[in-house]
Design a protein that fits this description.
Distance between the termini: 42 Å
Strand content: 5-15%
Mean pLDDT: 84
Largest sheet: 3 strands, antiparallel
Order of helices and strands: HEHEEHHEEEHEH
Low-confidence stretches: 1-15, 254-260
Length: 260
């Protein structure tokens, strides 16, 4: 499920402090080890060609989701209390759902990518963690949120601690839910009955807590160009990231052109 990774031959990495990885050490976070994710973070499963598939600790016949499936497995199996994850199209939320964890994708600019990156995939990707509880996620977000030197933009600072907010009774909210899903071909289809039942259970729980819950369509999912635009941004981001990581192993910077 977890395997240590090594740098490519000839790689000339310069040690730099970056949140939410090494930079978190200054905030009392101790890094344990690296785990597995889908190749290039593209797929919602964790089966990279170089390694055996990562399996769900609750049922090895099932997927832990992806792309941060190794992180979700590590937390669900009790190896660590929290694990780093990132999310562009569901890579925190999908593994959290598959492994019975809490996964929050923070707002754009909430957690810094500096100094190694300004943003990732045009701002689609955000970093945080997967945890067993909302409390743990809020505590980690208190540690990681905020502007860092090198950020091209940042989210407005929160008025108070996320962890402290958990003790404040929430006001009644108006909550909408959708049980149909977007297919890769752009069509809208019914979700699996198990997923629909889970949504209904969550809706009933929220209603019992005093919130107004109702079915609501998501108009953007019906826009014919939405999916194509998403995949275009994602493909460009993956290509740019791959080029940036391959160039040092070839002995040149990512901005250097080779002559034929």
């Amino acid at each position: 499920m977890q395997r240590p990774l090594t740098a490519a031959p000839g790689r000339r990495d310069v040690p730099r402090d970056q949140l939410p990885g090494d930079g978190a050490r200054a905030r009392g976070v101790h890094r344990h080890r690296q785990d597995q994710h889908s190749e290039l973070g593209i797929l919602p499963s964790t089966e990279p060609p170089a390694w055996p598939p990562t399996r769900n600790p609750y049922d090895p016949a099932r997927t832990p989701g992806g792309s941060s499936g190794g992180s979700a497995c590590a937390v669900a199996a009790g190896l660590v209390p929290i694990a780093h994850a990132s999310d562009g199209g569901g890579s925190i939320r999908i593994p959290a759902s598959c492994c019975g964890l809490f996964g929050l994708k923070p707002s754009r600019g909430r957690v810094s990518f500096a100094p190694n990156h300004g943003d990732v995939h045009g701002g689609l990707v955000n970093e945080h963690v997967v945890t067993r509880s909302v409390r743990d996620s809020a505590a980690v977000l208190d540690l990681l949120a905020g502007l860092q030197s090198g950020d091209p933009y940042t989210a407005p600072p929160p008025p108070t601690s996320y962890l402290a907010e958990l003790a404040v009774p929430p006001r009644a909210l108006r909550i909408g839910f959708e049980t149909r899903r977007l297919m890769p071909d752009g069509q809208i289809a019914d979700s699996h009955p198990d997923c629909v039942a889970a949504v209904a259970h969550a809706a009933q729980l929220l209603e019992s807590l005093g919130h107004q819950v109702e079915h609501a369509d998501i108009p953007v999912l019906r826009e014919p160009e939405w999916l194509a635009r998403f995949f275009t941004i994602w493909a460009v981001g993956v290509t740019a990231g791959s080029t940036r990581h391959r160039a040092p192993s070839a002995g040149r910077s990512s901005g250097t052109r080779s002559s034929s």
